[in-house]
Amino acid sequence: MQRNWIGKSEGAKIKFRLDNGKEIEIFTTRPDTIYGVTFIVFAPEHPLVAELVAGTEYEAKVQEFVRRARLTNKSQEKEGMFIGCYAVNPVNGERVPVYIGNFVLMEYGSGCVMAVPAHDQRDFEFAKKYGLPIKVVIQPEGKELNVEEMTEAYEGEGILVNSDKFSGMKSNEARVALIKFFEEQGIGGKAIEYKMRDWLVSRQRYWGTPIPILYCENCGIVPVPEQDLPVMLPRDVRFGEGNPLESNKSFVEAKCPRCHGNARRETDTLDTFFDSSWYFLRYCDPQNEKEAFEKKKVEYWMPVDFYIGGAEHAVMHLLYARFFTKVLRDLGLISFGEPFLRLRNQGIVTLGGEKMSKSKGNVVDPIEMIEKYNADTLRAYLLFVANPESQLEWSDKGIEGVYRFWKKVIMLSKKHVTSDTDNELGVYRLNKLIKDVTEAIENFEFPKAIISLMKFTDYLSMKQEVPRESYEGFIKLLSPFMPHTAEELWARLGNKDFVSIASWPQADSQLRFISMSYHRSSFFIRKRASVSMYLAYL
User: Fold this and answer.
1) Alpha carbons 337 and 328: distance in angstroms, whole number
2) What is the rounded distance in angstroms from the CA atom of residue 18 to the CA atom of residue 98?
3) Rounded CA gap, 257 and 114, in Å?
4) What is the torsional sign of CA 109, 115, 116, 119?
C-alpha cells in the first residue's frame, strides 16, 4: 500500500514547445511511444492553462471547466476541452492540439501528459470521445494492429513501427535508445517521478503543529532560534474568517532574531501526523526537558517489536513514522532505520454481514455484555472467534459457550489444591499445554490456545484434588485471555504478586508425550529414552 501511495515511476521527461514559445516538460513511463502522440492534456488548474487562454475566445469556457473539475471526482467520466493552441512533438515536428482534462493530476509529473491513444486506455477512451486521431507505433509480436478495428488500447510490449529510425526495435530496447536520443538532442532525458500526496502540509488546521519560520523584510526567511522553541499556538483565536492564525495579531507579529526588526510568523501548520510520526521515540524518554529524547534510552527500547493496528494507517501514520525514523537516523540521533519490526493489521467486527457502526445502529454494547456475563468472558470470546487479519461476525450463541467455560474455571477453583506433584500423565499434559498455548499466542492463533485451556480444564475437573504445580501453570496460561479471573485465582493460592508479572511457564523441549492404549494403560517416554526400552515395553 505504501509503495502504491508513493507511486515511484521510472521513465523520461520530454520537452514540448507550445504556441506561445514556452516549453513544457512532460513525464512519461513509455518514451517508446513518443511517435504515437496525437495530443497533450494539461491538468485544468495548471498555471500555464490560464496564460495560454488569456484574452482568447476559450478563456471563459476554460474557467468554467476548471470550476467544475474542482468539484468533481477524478474517477468520474473523463472530460476535457480543446483550449485553442498547439504543441510541437520534438521528435518529428508534428503539431498536436492541446487539451485540458479532468483526469490529469496537477501533483503528478509536470501536470501535463502526452497522449498516445493507441497504447494507453485512458487516452484511447478520451480520443474516441472527442474524435482525436489514433496512431499505432507498437505492434505486438505475431499480430498486426489495425486502428479501425481496435476496441481498446494495446498497452503491452512489442516492436516499434512508424517511429522513424527506431522502427523495428523491441520496445524495451527502444526506451533506452530513445532516452539517449533525447539527451543528445537536448530535448529530455531519464527521470523518476513520485505521485505521493504531501498530507503533512496540505491539510491546514489551527490545531496543527506550528512551523517555526519567520519572514523578515531585511533578512528574508529566518528559522525560529532553538531557545525560542516550541512555537505555541495562541488560545485567543476567532474562527469563521479564514485561517484564525492570520488574524491573530499577537501570534503573527514577531521580532527577527537576526536584525531585531519586525517580522511575520508563518501561519500555516503541519498536520497532526507530524506529532504521531515520532511520538514512540518520546515515549522512551517522556520527562526529558532538555531534548526530544536521549539517544541511549531510545536505543534501549526501540525499535518496536510488534505493531498492531488498522490497515487504514498504512499510508498515513505508518508511512510518515518510517520517514521520520530514517531522517533521524541520517541525522545521527538514532541508529536504526525502521520504527516497527513487525506489523499485523487487525480485522473488523460485523453484525448481520455489515461492519459495526453507530450510524447504522448495528452495534453490540460491551457494557451490556459485561453486565450480563463479565469482562473476561467477553474478552475471551472475542479472542476465541476472531482471526486478527479477517472480519468477525458477532454471535450471541458463541459468547454463551465461552461463558460456560468461564463457569467451569470458577468451579475448578473450589477444589482442594494439593502440594503433591501431579502424576506422570499430568506432567506431560501440563508440558504440552505450555507448548501449545505459547506457540498459539506467538502465531496469533488465539482460538487454538483457548481450546487447549478448555481441554486442560476438563482434565483438572476430573481430579478429586488439584496439584498446585499444574494449577498454577494453568492460571498463568489463562491470564492473557481472562486476566481478572486469573488474578483472583492467583491471589486465592496465597501469591502476593500479580500473575500478570509472574514468569511465563517454559515447556521442556526434552519432554515428549506418547500415549498408547494397551490394556487401558498409557506409555510415556522422554525423547532421550532408547528405542529398545520402548520395544521392551511393547
Assistant:
1) 8
2) 9
3) 48
4) positive
488 grid coordinates = 483472583
Beta bridge partners of 466: 417
For 9-193, CATH gives 3.90.740.10
pLDDT at site 418: 87
The pTM assigned to this predicted structure is 0.63
Average pLDDT in the chain: 86
Q: Cell triple for residue 309?
A: 493496528
Count Cα neighbours of 354 within 13 Å in the Cβ-side half-sphere: 10
From CA 46, how far away is CA 135, in angstroms rounded? 27
Cα(first)–Cα(last) distance of the chain, in Å?
59
**Pair 96, 25: CB distance under 8 Å:** no
Q: How far, CA to CA in Å, does 73 sit from each of 40, 70, 315?
A: 21, 8, 20
The reported pLDDT for the residue numbered 363 is 64
Strand partners, 160: 138
**Does the pLDDT at position 395 exceed 70?**
no
Residue 371, H or E segment: helix 366-372
Q: What is the DSSP string of 492-537?
A: HTT--S-GGGSPPP---TTB------SSS-----BTTS-HHHHHHH
**274-294 burial, b for 16+ CB within 10 Å, e for fewer?**
bebbbebbeebbeeeeeeebe
Going from N- to C-terminal start, the domains of the chain cover: 9-193, 199-273, 277-345, 354-400
Q: Which long-range contacts (CB under 8 A, 24 or more apart) does 61-65 make?
A: 62/100, 65/100
Q: How confident is the model at residue 385 (pLDDT cuts 50, 70, 90)?
A: confident
